[in-house]
Amino acid sequence: MTNLEIMNFDLGKKYNLFHHSNKDINKVIDLISFEDCDVVFLQGTNALFKELGDNLDYTFYVGNRTNTATLVKPSIEVISDTSYYGVSDVMIGSYEGEKIAFINTNLKTGYAVNDLVKALDKYTDLRNSSYMENIILAGNFPKEQIESYYHYNCFYDVISNMKSDDSNRGIIVTKSLKVDETYSFYGFMDTYSMSDSYPVKALIKSKCK
């Protein structure tokens, strides 16, 4: 697997973006369209996802009451999509013949982190039939309560995207994956102030490649 492009984009709460003009919303559409990533992880609200979905050339997989949407291009073959109530959305996909679990989560506090850990356990346990070697976790999750996965379940931090503090992280991946390049769109979020996180982009490949 080579050159899988992913983006994480926290759009903040509905009122943050809708207090801006349609011109600002169009800037979000323009950025996502221009970068043209294979997978885009969004955190926001269903109303906002619908607004964007009408204007973006992606298939939207919207989590069930998780405030997440995972956008995919035809380069990704979607095998399954499962929502964990209040925690995350897990999309199992195939890219260049390799299966990947794309986990999109939006936990800005620690209240549901145990449920996220249970979801991660399902996909990182070698004894479980749902085990996945390749996992990408993106979105908002309390760093201090998830760091054990860096050591015990072979994850590593790709990029932190917070503006104000480092309590939440942007993207972590399993060590079976190699990250070639990362980008943070500092100017975009500083200009439009839609959330407390910068949009981030990463170029990923299998380590065996």
Query: What global shape is seen?
Result: globular
In total, how many beta strands? 12
Question: Using only CA atoms, what is the Rg?
Answer: 16 Å
- Mean residue pLDDT: 82
The largest sheet, given as strand count, sense and whether it forms a barrel, is: 6 strands, mixed
User: Which range best describes the helical content: under 10%, 10-25%, 25-40%, 40-55%, 55-70% or over 70%?
Assistant: 25-40%
Span of the ends, CA to CA: 7 Å
Spatially, the strands of the biggest sheet line up as 3-4-2-1-12-11
**Which H/E pattern describes the elements?**
EHHEHEEEEEHEHHEEEHE
Quote the beta fraction: 35-45%
Class computed from helices, strands and strand pairing: alpha+beta
Tags for this entry?
209 residues; alpha+beta; globular
Describe this structure in words.
Helix content is 26%, strand content 36%. It is built from seven helices and twelve strands. The strands form two sheets. The chain has a six-stranded mixed sheet, covered by helices on one side. It has a six-stranded mixed sheet with strand order 5-6-7-8-10-9. The longest helix is centred in the first third of the chain and has 14 residues, at 22-35.
